[in-house]
Amino acid sequence: MAMGNWTRISEFILMSFSSLPTEIQSLLFLTFLTIYLVTLMGNSLIILVTLADPMLHSPMYFFLRNLSFLEIGFNLVIVPKMLGTLLAQDKTISFLGCATQMYFFFFFGVAECFLLATMAYDRYVAICSPLHYPVIMNQRTRAKLAAASWFPGFPVATVQTTWLFSFPFCGTNKVNHFFCDSPPVLRLVCADTALFEIYAIVGTILVVMVPCLLILCSYTRIAAAILKIPSAKGKHKAFSTCSSHLLVVSLFYISSSLTYFRPKSNNSPDSKKLLSLFYTVVTPMLNPIIYSLRNSEVKNALSRTFHRVLALRNCIP
């Protein structure tokens, strides 16, 4: 398209679920609002309990606290705007707002990949070197590992968002998604994006595969160590410390891989929206539930915290 025909876009329109009847959109609003509130309360509760209960001051719960904080941020980036489009039918988002949403989506997404790998390494050290675990995973080391998990999100989000929004946009400003994700926004660009697309594909593969390989490596060593444990009770106890993390990893990687690595011929906008809903909205809600229901230490800590709160209330005249 000629330079003279390019128009400066000041805002985008998120198409979201506009093709659905109003009654269905109202039902979706109530559903997503419930999920959103459960996500915020569940992850906030995990953060508060792991901070308040001395029994949960181990490295495992330090990283779980980071994961819960990350899930809250991930939800705050996506869900409020989506709820607004469903309730008030205000589908517009400013140019800067769209870029900001995409930046933090990349930031939290990349951070989660590496944080899940860090949590796998923590489980590897705990099971394969239990006697040295407190020394290896001391307070300084866990802080460095947490920082190393969060840091890659900054350069990835900065480069990809800045590069994409430096392109000229022309024609329609309608983003066929419920948030500003890279592929639907890229379709609105009227310039040669071949180099950017190569970078995006290579970057996504590295961001997904490097942590995934680290997780596989850790769990291969963990599986070998568990098989050497003579008693069935010991094996079950060792595996139970990893089962919650394994389930969370599976949910995140399967849904995100199906979203971004499926062939384009099988990747309709509607199916991508459904898959995106799962890892951006549903998974952050499931994580605290998984860690609460499948972890006796968290359940016991929640019970102790609840009884302490009741005792305090009874003491107040």
Automatic annotation (TrEMBL):
Gene3D superfamilies: Rhodopsin 7-helix transmembrane proteins. GO terms for cellular component: plasma membrane. Its main location: membrane. Keywords: Cell membrane, G-protein coupled receptor, Membrane, Olfaction, Receptor, Sensory transduction, Transducer, Transmembrane, Transmembrane helix. It is found in: Cell membrane. Residues 42-291 form the G-protein coupled receptors family 1 profile domain. It comes from the Eukaryota. It is a multi-pass membrane protein. InterPro entries: GPCR_Rhodpsn, GPCR_Rhodpsn_7TM, Olfact_rcpt. The chain crosses the membrane at residues 27-51, 63-83, 103-124, 145-165, 198-217, 238-254, 274-293. GO terms for molecular function: G protein-coupled receptor activity; olfactory receptor activity. PANTHER family: OLFACTORY RECEPTOR. Belongs to the G-protein coupled receptor 1 family. This is Olfactory receptor. It comes from Cebus imitator.
